[in-house]
Amino acid sequence: MSANVLFERRDAVAVLTINRPHAFNALNEAIFSQLTAAVEQCEDHRIRAVMVTGSGRAFCAGGDLKEMQSKGRERLPELLGGMSKPFHGLIKKIRLLPKPVMAAVNGTASGGGMSLALACDLRIAAKSARFRQAYTGVGFCPDGGLSVMLPALLGIGRSSTMFFLDPVLKAEEAMAIGLVNGVFPDEEFREKASDEIQKLAAGPTQSFAMAKMLMNRILMPLLENQLELECRGMHNAGKTEDAWEGINAFVQRRAPVFAGK
After folding, report:
1. 11 catalytic, yes or no?
2. Mean pLDDT of the 185-200 span
């Protein structure tokens, strides 16, 4: 892997680290390609558990809105729809990998970063971590399977709160509603994450694979259909004035003024 994604094997554990700390690990085509390749490496039978995390202060801040802005408004539908396709391929790879994948959320997980975390089987978080769906907050369509995973974990009522009010959840709030499986103090987080993934790697690998397969029998038909709809939704969102306003407001660090157009 190049510097954008770090791959480290620790005995039976693979650690995949998104490594764009200067951009809060924002997602772009290079990240999708390299992270997908890293997940494919984890098909190695010697790897029994996988951890996904971020370098620096963020887990993943979602799509790179500055990069999108730099390419201009006319290209936005193409960019949003086009980026969904490799992102969705990555999400499916994670779901179909026959071994547990744990997101170690070391900091902010928003937009695509939250989608990525929810695609994993388990999530643990540093106490300072924050979660935000963010898509609707910038005039986008939910993406990365979030329209499936969020209701699956939270139900329609709480998912509606997330999509329509777009709150920022502290790690302990995320745990209280079922988004996160464990929260640890920041100063202990890396050590605790290592302990948790090692426990998974020492578990009954074939049993875990069968359990994941059974859950996927329920989840994957719905997920695959929703990913297609999300891709169309992102393309259509890119045509709106609100999406362009959302991007500019984010880059300019101000509140967006949406026109509903």
Report:
1. no
2. 97
